[in-house]
Every structure is written in C-alpha cells, then in structure tokens.
Design a protein that fits this description.
8-stranded parallel barrel, TIM Barrel, alpha/beta, about 35% helix
Length: about 250
C-alpha cells in the first residue's frame, strides 16, 4: 500500500471558501488563497478546489482564483466546478491546476471522462462521486446533491475507471459536514472494487475518524474541510497521530 495522503478541500462560492452540512446551510470559512498557503505550511499532501455552485449556476470555475492559488502553493492541486468539455480542462491546467475533477457532467455524458483522459492522460482526471444511502442502497447524486440519479455507486465507480479516470473522490452526502466519521461501508466497497486511488470524503470530525477510514478501507487518501478551515485539527498533528497509530502516511 502506498503512503496515505491528507487532502484539505476548499469549497468555493462567490470567490470565498464555504462549508455546510449535507451540502446545504453554507457558512463562510475564509479567504481561499490564505487557506491554501496555510495548508502547504501545515504539510497537506494535496489540495482540492471545488467551485461548488458552478454547475447549478451554469458557469465555469473561477479561473482567475485558480491562478492566484496556484501561484502561492507548491503541492498538487485539483480543480472542479462546471467542467463539461476538453477546452475547460485545458484552461484550468494552463491556469495552474495539476488535475481536474468532474462530477455531474460525467454522469450526464460519461464519454467526457474518456475524452479528457485521452487528451491529457488518466493521471489528470479525478471523477468525483457524490453518493447517498437511499432505501439501503448507495446511489449517485449530482448538482451538488440536489438531483438523484439511477446510477448505483459501486457500478458507477467501476465504470469511471473503465472510461479512464485516474482517481475517484467519493463523498458521502449522509455524513458530509456532520463530523460523525467517514462512511466506512461505501468507502470500503468502492475502494475494493476499483484499481485506482479512492479519496474518502465526508464526515471527518476527529483524528480517530482518519485512523478508522485508513484501517477499515483501502482508500488512498482522506479529505476534509471544516475541521481544517476552523483550526479544529492541525495537519501536522494529524499526521503525527496517524504515524503513531501505525499508518503509513506521507
């Protein structure tokens, strides 16, 4: 197993970092550039930047903000929000992103994954999967959690790998922002059914939650937002704790 990664996520709305619970009730969490710089100093392995209302507002990710953040950091940086064609990807990569992530647009047009992978390489594309437990079945949701789909989560994860995704970012809507712990059930199932890295997302509230997801699933990384944004957990301290618990961490 490769060393596990810790990834802060910056959800962006109107140019500011925000955070909510179950994808709603958003509150301001600070300046995106300053947060990105702080996470580099704390030892974050990567950053994820999601323009969370770009798709529902039918607009593109904030390219100028991507440029500002990229100019200030020296760790890999994934960007998503409103990406629905190869040209969008090219613009963001030129702005400084290392990888891009697609979600709703890939569900609506799966061949987009193959188009991006074909032009820029599998390592460039992260497919974000937002999932919700409904009637004891994990299903894929899109549009920032607003729209239910007919896709079953595990089946969709397998398919995106076949289409050329280099990584999956799996967010449980049931636990997102609740600080009650990652959804170990679906994270474990997805990470066991694909051969590409899986980033666990949604529900981190303590250092123990990171230990649990790394011990109980095959995920390659764990992502969190509010606990880092509001200073509840320091990344250096988290890494030190995980190493003490016997987890190989970068």
């Amino acid at each position: 197993m490769l060393k596990r990664r810790i990834i802060p996520c910056l959800d962006i709305k109107d140019g500011r970092t925000v955070k909510g619970v179950n994808f709603i009730n958003l509150i301001d969490a600070g300046d995106s550039v300053e947060l990105a710089k702080a996470y580099v100093k704390q030892g974050a392995d990567e950053l994820v930047f999601l323009d969370i209302t770009a798709t529902v507002e039918n607009r593109k990710a904030l390219t100028a903000l991507v440029e500002r953040i990229a100019a200030e950091i020296n760790i890999p940086f994934t960007v998503g929000g409103g990406i629905d064609n190869v040209k969008d990807v090219s613009v963001l990569l030129k702005a400084g992103a290392d990888k891009i992530t697609v979600n709703s647009s890939a569900v609506r047009r799966p061949e987009l994954i193959s188009e991006i992978a074909g032009q820029f390489g599998n390592q460039c594309i992260v497919v974000a999967i937002d999932t919700k437990l409904v009637n004891n079945e994990w299903v894929v949701v899109v549009d920032g959690g607003r729209t239910m789909t007919e896709f079953k989560t595990i089946e969709w994860a397998v398919r995106v790998e076949e289409l050329g995704a280099g990584e999956i970012m799996l967010t449980s809507m049931n636990t997102d922002g609740t600080k009650s712990g990652f959804s170990l059930d679906i994270t474990g199932k997805v990470s066991r059914n694909v051969n590409i890295p899986v980033i666990a997302s949604g529900g981190a509230g303590s250092m123990e939650h990171f230990k649990d997801v790394f011990f109980n699933t095959e995920c390659s990384a764990a992502l969190a937002a509010s606990i880092f944004h509001f200073g509840e957990i320091d990344i250096w301290e988290l890494k030190k704790y995980l190493k003490h618990e016997g987890i190989a961490i970068r």
